[in-house]
Design brief:
Shape: globular
CATH superfamily: D-tyrosyl-tRNA(Tyr) deacylase
Distance between the termini: 16 Å
Helix content: 25-40%
Largest sheet: 6 strands, mixed
Radius of gyration: 19 Å
CATH topology: D-tyrosyl-trna(Tyr) Deacylase, Chain: A
Number of strands: 8
Length: 207
């Protein structure tokens, strides 16, 4: 599964002359489902989309808060062209899940996202329709996300899940300890010496 995630100040979807949905500040997610995707891919995507730290905190510190932390909205749009494979200059979409299967799969992703967050803050486009997606990118900030391929053996999956839980516990403990050590002086960087993204980008890796 592939997604293009954009931080936006506003976004909307229209079909013809009719506006289907719109959001204020939050995320616009273009989501492409492949023929090989499973529930595991869907769960990964939902978790990542809702927990990506693409927003500033209450003190203006960048890359500190997720869409859930800030109570922002999410607009999801089904986008099979993300599964494009070029044959010369001609796009081929055979790796995309067929529409008759993809719609129910996509709907289940939306339901998962709503149950994991606040349903009234999750908006949708119009599956299968010819849409115009209007995006006011904030930053601009655009993240490309692909669900990882991995083992399907239940024992191996259980092992990976336990490893993931240990990582999360270690990261939480480390964050608490670093918070106590912040009383000392810190070197200040030139705010104009930017790499193209606002604030300090953490090198911390998340699952």
């Amino acid at each position: 599964m592939r997604a293009i995630i954009q931080r936006v100040t506003k976004a909307s979807v229209t079909v013809g002359e009719d506006q289907v949905s719109s959001i204020g500040r939050g995320l616009c997610v273009l989501l492409g489902i492949s023929v090989e995707d499973t529930q595991r891919d869907a769960d990964y995507m939902v978790r990542k989309i809702l927990n990506l730290r693409l927003f500033e905190d209450e003190n203006g510190r960048a890359w500190s808060r997720s869409v859930m932390d800030r109570d922002f909205e999410v607009l999801c749009v089904s986008q099979f062209t993300l599964q494009c494979i070029l044959k010369g200059n001609k796009p081929d979409f055979h790796s995309a899940m067929p529409a008759e299967l993809a719609q129910s799969f996509y709907d289940s992703i939306l339901e998962n996202m709503k149950s994991s967050y606040k349903p009234e803050l999750i908006k949708d486009g119009a599956f299968g329709a010819f849409m115009q997606v209007h995006i006011q990118n904030d930053g601009p900030v655009t993240i490309e996300l692909t669900s990882p391929t991995g083992p399907t053996d239940p024992k191996q999956l259980s092992k990976q899940e336990k490893q993931q839980q240990r990582k999360e516990k270690t990261r939480s403990k480390g964050s608490a300890e670093s918070g106590r050590d912040r009383g000392g002086p810190r070197s200040r960087q030139d705010p104009n010496a930017s790499s193209g993204a606002e604030g300090d980008v953490s090198s911390e890796r998340e699952p």
